[in-house]
Amino acid sequence: MRILGISCYYHDAAACLIKDGKIVAATEEERFTRVKHDISFPINAINYCLEEAGIKGKDIDYVGFYEKPLLKFERLLSQHLEMFPKSFWSFYKALPSWINEKLRVPSTIRKKIGYKGDILFVEHHMAHAASSYLVSPFKKAAILTTDGIGEWATTTLGYANGNEITIDKEIHFPHSLGLLYSAVTAHLGFKVNDHEYKVMGLAPYGKPTYYDKFKKLIRINEDGSYKLDMKYFVYHYKLTMPSKRFIKEFGPVRKREEKIEQRHKDIAASLQKITEEVLFHLANHLYKITKMENLCLAGGVALNSVANGKILRNTPFKQIYIQAAAGDAGTSLGVAFYIYNTILGKKRVYVMDNAYHGTHFSTNEIKNYLDKNKIVYLTFKDDNQLVKQTAKLIYENNVIGWFQDRMEWGPRALGARSILSNPTNPKMKEILNLKVKHREHFRPFAPVVTTEDTYDYFEADKPLPIPADFMLIVYPIKKEKRRLLPAVTHVDGSGRLQTIKKSQNKRYYAVIKEFEKLSGVPILVNTSFNIRGEPIVCTPEHAYRCMMGTGIDYLIMDKFLIARKDNPKDMWDSEKTIND
Amino acid sequence: MNNAVVFFKGFKQGFRNFSHLITDIVNFVLLFIVYFTGIGIVSIISKLFGKHFMDLKSSGSSWVVRKLKKRPIEEYYRLF
Questions:
Q1: Per the domain annotation, does A29 fall within a domain?
Q2: Beta-carbon contacts of residue A448 (< 8 Å; ≥ 6 apart)
Q3: How many A/B residue pairs have CB atoms within 8 Å?
């Protein structure tokens, strides 16, 4: 039985195809269109999924959509009815896309993919809940979902047993932890629904001196719920987010080109503190009502890896699971599994313990690309040579583009489309920023570590949660090891680690172990393989273009080694065309 | 000949821009009417009767109890 899940029209359009309860393919539309967080109908992602399965649209048994559009439209109309006449511009901007696209989902699906069967619509937060629980190893679990907004719900508490998921209660728009985080993101001059993770990275540079002011914005109730004081926000009727009262309290909005001051860092730190407090409060209340030891998290706020790393220490839960694409892209996966396991009652046969569900290219396809474009390259004679040479290049402080096997599902690069470099070099952060990433100075680079060595370097939860494999958890690096890892140690001594087992990615694991033989440290810098402002690379062409447009020294693509310096005819400067 | 091609390309682009302008104006007028009559009238009458469509000001718990479980498959065919 083949089920296709689709999410689109808000941010991070994606598609996921499952067959008999297992993932065949899952991928985001942005990787194909090269538009970050692309919201459009994910026809390219769907076509890839169908191609991977060797089928056409008419061969699908069910299609699932990740929300109930009319319920969402009802909420939208409610906003305008409540806020009339202040909300006209917001109404004017929103309505055309509803009329043209969002209310026509069934006909769009049938027309674009040639599908004639049943289309099932699942509520947004149920799709989130399913996206985590139904691919977790748990037979039963408490489920907490938090995001900006679904139809009406912004936060839900639920539980699951076997195949059955129950959403017990929810908090409704406009009271939203996700939108609070986004409003502050906007206030700090960053892009909403894109740069929230930058605010999270900025927080350790500040002190929570604005915490008391945040307590005025959000009231945390005894019963576990929270409520925003909407006098501080305007997103429920305007196209901007913080109100004049918010600006009076927290200072003027930072323009993008303005320098980041201590005030901004302190606001970020205070926001992170209050977000964690609300999350722990919700989770503790959830434990009280469910008494379940396992916790599944989902929704955009579940991408807050700093908070995730503290959940087990601040709640009675013993185990935690977060799926690799915890945000809206993941709801395409959630709706597919919800249809299969819950609605149709089929047995759960799958646990997601790796995120490699995207596009892949054969050795011949890559070779043909290289030959056709007259690219100078070398071929490794075997895996052993590849691993040794890659580790040596990294040890010699080269920046390596690593393009192997199936692309990752979710926002993080996890060793399939990664840039790898030496974490022991104190200058590596500067080198990476200068050569490739051109990031803000406050943003850390992340480490990848072999699973069995994690506890030697990190103060991690025991047992190690699966979300660490998806780079969704931040842990403190052990004090005595921080001087060994200057390139990946954040200012507060933490690291957003990826843990990797040999069974998950043999070649990647082997490179890390080989690097350990040279340096004594089984850790690499792992950052996403992309030009600044673009999505992670998807095809060999994207990878080569990225290397040649930045300062990446070498590209290891399957068993081929391409050196930037050997191909001067293709060099270009990506910084001249950046749209970030 | 070249001049003619350039002229027609420019004309086509100009016409396209004009049609987008007309679309924007028509959209604006239509949505203005819908907003101020449709939304406006319902909103004013509702507020006269004390009806609110969003919980902005109340104190107390924010929880909305759902007990949302699996439903018969036919309910999932609906967009609401």
A1: yes
A2: A414, A415, A418, A420, A497, A498, A499, A500, A508, A512, A523, A524, A525, A526
A3: 123
